[in-house]
Structures are given as structure tokens and as C-alpha cells.
Amino acid sequence: xxxxxxxxxxxxxxxxxxxxxxxxxxxxxxxxxxxxxxxxxxxxxxxxxxxxxxxxxxxxxxxxxxx
Length: 67
Prior knowledge:
The protein is mostly helical. The protein is built from 3 helices and no strands. It has one domain (about 1-65).
């Protein structure tokens, strides 16, 4: 099963992470049409953006051996 998943993402963690971010963005955009302030403070969006950037860079560097 894991081999099929890796093949679907062309053996790239960066592609997997990008598609996960798109999915999370769609979910967030859908949920943001309502007032989520009681459930999700705005600081968590900022934390997510920082976390997302760091993970993206780590995955990109992990894949590119010549960097």
C-alpha cells in the first residue's frame, strides 16, 4: 500500500506536502466562511504558516542531494 502511495506522489515528499497543503487550504477556506474565532484563534494560522514553510524547505532539501 505504501508503495502505491509513494508512486502516486512520484516518490517525492515535497509533492505530497504540497498536495496536503492544498487539501488543508480547501478545508480552511470552507471553514472560514463561518466565524471560527471561538474554535481557532488567529495566532494558530500564523503558526501554521511558519510550520508549513519550515517543513516545505526541509522536504525540498532532503530530496535535492546537490544542495
